[in-house]
Amino acid sequence: MATQTAAQHELAELIVTSLNLESVQPADIDPEAPLFGGELGLDSIDALEIALAVSKRYGFQLKSDNPDNRTIFTSLRTLSDHIEQHRAAA
């Protein structure tokens, strides 16, 4: 498993808290592992919850009609990278 950066760990904590993933520790989320269809068992409703939590925490919206969403939500790393890019621009 790859090591989480500080930004990835912060995001992992947000995901675990916002989705009430009681059996998952934020540090146990592999930054390279798929967020959906993988070990976490997340689905499209969870994606909406994550988008809402990201909006509240980081001050910008992940739009549901963004054609890049599949790429953005691929893994903890890709979502964290996207947030860092847009957080700086906001």
TrEMBL record:
Domain of life of the native organism: Bacteria
InterPro entries for the chain: ACP-like_sf (IPR036736), PP-bd_ACP (IPR009081)
Carrier domain span: 5-90
Name of one Pfam family that matches: PP-binding
Protein name stated in the entry: Acyl carrier protein
Organism: Luteibacter jiangsuensis
